[in-house]
Model the fold of this input.
Amino acid sequence: MDLRLPLPLHFCTILLLKNTCSMHIVAFGASYSSASINRQFAAWAAARFENSTADLLDLNEYELPVFTVDREQTEGHPEAAHRFVEKIRSADLLIISLAEHNGTYTAAFKILFDWSSRVQLKMFEGKTMFLLSTAPGARGGLGVMEAARVRFPIHGAEIAGHFSLPKFGEHFDPAHGITDPDLRAAFELQEALVKSRMAEKA
Done:
């Protein structure tokens, strides 16, 4: 079951009085870890967008076998891949925080990405994206960020902003978010670009 962020996290702050929201966000950490720091980062970023509703996805609800052409031909496309693509389609804004293994996507997310792109090649068509990454180390997932910035637009994504947070344990507090002033300023600059783009599309 997808976890929905509660309204008190600054969603629909103004339009709640009208019982309506102007934008729907789908957010997730591209990791299957139960303690994913990227899922935590994506949730925090999503909560900063007012006048919105958000779904915070748990990718464990979309567990899939390794993609092979033989499996596709004999078994078709798994139901979980179809459900994931439908979630992507429902979004006005995608907030994805990428976990990095050996300089690129985690194996489990790559499998989900592979299957989903077979369901719909342009799976991000028409979607504005705020692309994030974080990691315990000093690069903050820059390898996977670079890979996604090249690949995701091929599948239709419009990446309006991107940010990598290094040393998550040192620079992030669950109650206050990014604690380093320079890193927070860099994040807020990218966040402002995304908000500006969403305002243009409204």
User: Anything to note?
Assistant: The chain has one domain: 3-201.
